Amino acid sequence: MDLLDNIVEFRSSPDLRAKLFSLSTLKTLKKGEVLMSEDSYIRSIPIVISGSLQVIRTDDADKEIMLYYIKAGESCIMSFLGGLHNERSKIKAVAEENTEILFLPIEKVRILIKEYPQWLDYIFRLYHKRFEELLEVVNEVAFKKVDERLMSLLHKKVELTGSKTLEVTHEQLANELATARVVISRLLKQLEDSGVVKLGRNKITLL
C-alpha cells in the first residue's frame, strides 16, 4: 500500500490517501483476466496498486491494437470520463500480470474532486500522460515499420515486468500490434538469428 505514498498528489495529502482507501475495495486480478470489456458500463474507477493492465481497442472485425499500459500508481482516464458521463466503455482492459487494484465507486469520484484539489491534479496528470501515449501509438502506426514497433513493445514489456524473459505468444504480440501472427513469427526469427532475442515455447528472452 505504500506505493501511493510515492505519488506527489497522495504524498502531499495523507488525508486523500486515507479517504481513497476507505471508499474503495481492494481486489486482485490474475494474469489475463479481463477487468473491463468494451460496451460495458463503468461502475468504478480502477487504481493499480501493483502489477499492470493492458488497454486495448477492438474493431468490428475483432482486430485489436494495444493503446497503452496502466502501471502501478496509475488509473484509467477513460474510466473517469466514461463513468462520470454514464457512457459505456470504449476500451478493453486486461491484466498483463497478477495485479492488485483499488476499485473506487464512480459516485465517490465527485466527492473526492470537491474535497481534495490534489485528486483533480492526479486526474489531469493522468490525462496528460495518456494523451502523450496515444500520440506515440499514432506515430508508431503511421511512421514506423512493424519490426521497430515490435522491438518497442518488447522493451515496454521488459520495463513493466522487470524481467528480460517474457511469457508471451507470437499471437498475443500480433494482436497487440494489429498485424498477422506469421509476420511476428518471421520478425522474431530474424531477431533470433541476429542475436537480439532467444525464442522458447511461449517465451522470448531479450539478450
Keywords, please?
8 helices, Jelly Rolls, Arc Repressor Mutant, subunit A, 25% strand, 4-stranded antiparallel β-sheet, 3-stranded antiparallel β-sheet, 207 residues, alpha+beta, 2 domains
Describe the structure.
This protein is α+β, with helices and mostly antiparallel strands. The protein has two domains: 141 residues, Sandwich (Jelly Rolls); 62 residues, Arc Repressor Mutant, subunit A. The protein is 46% helix and 25% strand. A hairpin with a 2-residue loop joins strand 9 and strand 10. Helix 4 crosses helix 5 and helix 7 packs across helix 8. It starts with 7 loop residues before the first helix and ends with a strand. The relative contact order is 0.14. The mean pLDDT is 89.
What is the CATH superfamily classification of the largest domain?
Jelly Rolls
Order of helices and strands: HHEEEEEHEEHHHEHHEE
Largest beta-sheet characterization: 4 strands, antiparallel
Number of E-type strands: 10
Mean pLDDT: 89
**CATH topology call of the largest domain:** Jelly Rolls
Bin the strand percentage. Answer: 25-35%
Number of domains: 2
Helix content: 40-55%
Spatially, the strands of the biggest sheet line up as 2-6-4-5
Category by helix and strand content: alpha+beta
Distance between the termini: 34 Å
Low-confidence stretches: none
Tell the overall outline.
elongated
What is the radius of gyration?
A: 18 Å
Secondary structure elements and their pairing?
Blueprint: H1 8-11, H2 14-23, E1 25-29, E2 34-36, E3 44-50, E4 52-58, E5 64-71, H3 77-84, E6 92-95, E7 99-105, H4 106-115, H5 117-143, H6 146-161, E8 165-167, H7 170-176, H8 181-193, E9 197-200, E10 203-206
Antiparallel strand pairs: 1-7, 2-6, 3-7, 4-5, 4-6, 8-10, 9-10
Helix pairs in contact: 4-5, 7-8
